[in-house]
């Protein structure tokens, strides 16, 4: 089939790759999801088949991905949105195992995972092309991986502990300070009362915010505080742990319906609490 005249709706010129890279990279901090840049080469093929490979790749990418035919012969660059190294590898394995192309084409590739917003496109290209050369020298079907840009930006999380009891408040604070959670930096403040918390400016920023609070507090109790924060425009930033001695089904249902994310019945296991905290971080910000 003659594919030379087929228009390519999803392929951009090499000179515009940096612009698309910046757009996709800007969402990494918000979504906590990496992107991957793939440098792909095909060898041992006839020149007239280069366009056929381009058409093949264009059909395989998603609408959210970017494909570029590089100026170098038989080389392409793909940017896969919201896809880390593992997803990029699976994508390439599907390409390499395609029956209709395996006999005619010999693929080699390098994969660069971008896990942070400060990676520079020029350095990504430099590392990716160098690794592609290594992959080509290593033989057909070989994939090289670049690790230089995988490290994620630190996510700053605010943590508020609302508890009247000094001992319990200090125990929870110490437990959180001792937690080892890669990629996160916790900024912890404690409050003896819900009134003090609501009269501070601490909870009004846009930062993700974990709240651990007792349901019974002087002046403003936990449910009143919960009602206030759940009516803020950006209330989804709050993850609320409610500590209580009430363990009836009705009390739990009411708390969850009011906006509680985790319900801790006193006395609760500190190890279980730490596991729940880690799970929350993995679920919402990893």
Automatic annotation (TrEMBL):
Keywords for this protein: Phosphoprotein
InterPro entries, sorted: Bact_response_regulator, CheY-like_superfamily, Sig_transdc_resp-reg_receiver
The superkingdom listed in its UniProt entry is Bacteria
Instruction: List each copy of the Response regulatory domain by range.
Output: 158-281
Q: What is this protein called?
A: Response regulatory domain-containing protein
């Amino acid at each position: 089939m003659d594919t030379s005249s087929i228009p390519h709706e999803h392929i951009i010129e090499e000179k515009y790759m940096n612009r698309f890279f910046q757009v996709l990279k800007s969402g990494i901090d918000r979504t906590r999801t990496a992107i991957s840049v793939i440098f792909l080469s095909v060898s041992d093929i006839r020149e007239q088949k280069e366009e056929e490979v381009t058409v093949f790749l264009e059909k395989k990418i998603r609408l959210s991905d970017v494909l570029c035919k590089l100026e170098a012969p038989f080389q392409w660059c793909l940017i896969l949105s919201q896809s880390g190294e593992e997803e990029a590898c699976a994508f390439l394995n599907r390409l390499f195992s395609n029956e209709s192309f395996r006999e005619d084409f010999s693929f080699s590739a390098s994969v660069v995972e971008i896990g942070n917003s400060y990676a520079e496109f020029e350095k990504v290209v430099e590392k990716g092309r160098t690794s592609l050369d290594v992959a080509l020298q290593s033989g057909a079907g070989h994939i090289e991986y670049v690790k230089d840009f995988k490290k994620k930006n630190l996510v700053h999380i605010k943590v508020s502990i609302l508890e009247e009891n000094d001992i319990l408040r200090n125990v929870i604070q110490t437990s959180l300070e001792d937690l080892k959670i890669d990629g996160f930096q916790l900024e912890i403040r404690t409050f003896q009362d819900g009134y003090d918390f609501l009269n501070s400016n601490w909870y009004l920023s846009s930062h993700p915010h974990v709240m651990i609070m007792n349901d019974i507090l002087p002046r403003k109790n936990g449910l009143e505080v919960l009602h206030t924060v759940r009516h803020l425009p950006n209330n989804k930033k709050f993850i609320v742990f409610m500590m209580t001695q009430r363990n009836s089904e009705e009390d739990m249902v009411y708390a969850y319906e009011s906006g509680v994310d985790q319900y801790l019945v006193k006395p609760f296991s500190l190890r279980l609490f730490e596991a729940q905290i880690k799970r929350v971080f993995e679920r919402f910000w990893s």
